[in-house]
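STRUCTURE:
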């Protein structure tokens, strides 16, 4: 049978080889995703020429000159006698009736103003700088066949635990 020292040496060598091999296969070489190059080509927007419509100025009509006609001489006609007027009285009614003429509100008509429409000038677009993306830890990809980054500590811990378990087992066996 194998003595305790030989068993301990073999177990230690096996554990160290296992953790070293795991460490070599798990060590990821970070590969970064290609940085996208964003190029912005400036688009030229033609500036529209504002059209200004000018309302025609109203021309005033010439004022007519009034000519006075000669005043005719009036001849007086003989006065006629009038017939005597007959007055009739009507009995008052209980309900007075009042007729009201409908009142109309004057409507105001607005004359069109001759102001030209104002247009605000459009600004030409400015060219944006080329954006370059910096890689973040989420962009780092693992080596194919290996584990993702950040998994190395627990594998090493698992190897140490296995080594400790073998040591405890060897000690109890004696």
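SEQUENCE:
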């Amino acid at each position: 049978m194998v003595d305790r020292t030989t068993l301990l040496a073999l177990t230690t060598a096996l554990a160290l080889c296992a953790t070293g091999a795991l460490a070599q296969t798990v060590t990821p070489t970070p590969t970064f995703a290609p940085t996208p190059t964003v190029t912005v080509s400036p688009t030229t927007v033609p500036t529209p020429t504002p059209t200004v419509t000018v309302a025609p100025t109203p021309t005033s009509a010439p004022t007519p000159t009034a000519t006075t006609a000669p005043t005719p001489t009036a001849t007086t006609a003989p006065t006629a006698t009038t017939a005597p007027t007959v007055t009739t009285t009507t009995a008052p009614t209980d309900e007075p009736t009042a007729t009201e003429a409908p009142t109309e509100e004057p409507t105001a008509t607005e004359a069109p103003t001759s102001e030209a429409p104002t247009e605000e000038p459009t600004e030409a677009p400015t060219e944006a700088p080329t954006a370059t993306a910096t890689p973040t830890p989420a962009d780092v990809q693992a080596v194919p066949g290996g584990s993702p980054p950040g998994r190395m500590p627990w594998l090493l811990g698992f190897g140490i635990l296995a080594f400790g378990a073998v040591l405890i087992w060897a000690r109890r066996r004696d």
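REMARK: The first strand starts at residue 37 and ends at 38.
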